Predict the 3D structure of the following.
Amino acid sequence: MRDPLGHLFPNLPRPVRVALDWFLTIAGAIVIVLALKAFVVNPYRIPSSSMEPTLHCARPAPGCEAGFSDRVLACRVCLDVSSPHRGQIIVFNTPPLALVKCGAGGTFVKRLIGLPGETIKEDNQGYIWIEPFRGTTFYKLTEPYVQAQRRLADTSHYGKSWQVPLGDYFFMGDNRAESCDSREWGSVPRKNLIGTVFFVYWPPNRIGFR
């Protein structure tokens, strides 16, 4: 039985068909990988300590706890089929002010804290309070992912509050005192959101869903 290319090109010598078959297979695999990267999932490396200990960065960078930075996968299509919700770890493109405030801009990975129209307040113990859009009272946000000593170290934001414009989202790092986030450079427009982090694929001892 002839291979598929043999049916299409019966006069081609077999070595040429084999070489062409390998070329098409490799090219097809590359196209599939690029399509997945562009529309489904993207890999990212964690460069800073702003999400410690949820996501590790590599020593000797300040505040990093691991020998290797976590490599994560972000689901791009997830934000196309459902709205972002509080508590998700999301990859996004920063507003221009982030470069001024943080000394770095581009792509950040942070946790979604505030939704469009909400008011965010940090009390004098580092706890976050939320006033819903068109609400009249604040409620305390439960954050098991923030360690007590990291929350208490965030004294520079004690007593401050922030208003999230409609259509925007408010992000913070889990390592509050070491995170340059929406508290410094403002909220993030919906169009800047790239994908939700759902899996750590490297290093081997950190593999798992997040």
User: Anything to note?
Assistant: Confidence is low (pLDDT under 50) at residues 31-36. The chain has two domains: 4-38, 74-209.
